[in-house]
């Protein structure tokens, strides 16, 4: 009789087989603003810079610019500049970023399970 191996439990060892992807994942989406920017672009679609700035309460223009550039460098968003006066710039999620939709739902579900609404 052949014994089937038991599944690896979802521990750090089970999730992080060598080479561990977590440092790369954190590099892509870590920080205070990247996940929020991605959430907006994945679920609400293309946004202009000013729209993103208004939706991200407390982000400076410099920080937003840096975060958008990093996400663009990592191929998670695209930037389209229109030759207008004043220039119009729009940001959109790439298919790579849109593929993270299930991750956002999983994080929301985890939050709901572990942080019940207060009465």
Automatic annotation (TrEMBL):
UniProt keyword Transcription present:
yes
Mind listing the GO molecular function terms for this protein?
DNA binding
Protein's name in the database: Transcriptional regulator
Keyword Ligase carried by entry: no
Origin: domain of life: Bacteria
Q: Which UniProt keywords apply?
A: DNA-binding, Transcription, Transcription regulation
């Amino acid at each position: 009789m052949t014994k089937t191996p038991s599944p690896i439990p979802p521990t750090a060892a089970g999730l992080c087989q060598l080479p561990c992807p977590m440092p790369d994942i954190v590099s892509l989406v870590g920080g205070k603003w990247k996940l929020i920017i991605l959430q907006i672009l994945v679920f609400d679609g293309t946004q202009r810079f000013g729209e993103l700035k208004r939706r991200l309460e407390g982000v400076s223009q410099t920080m937003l610019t840096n975060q958008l550039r990093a996400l663009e460098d990592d191929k998670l968003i695209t930037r389209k500049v229109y030759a207008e006066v004043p220039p119009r710039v729009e940001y959109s999620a790439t298919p790579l970023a849109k593929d993270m939709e299930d991750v956002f739902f999983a994080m929301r579900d985890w939050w709901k399970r572990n942080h019940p609404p207060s009465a």
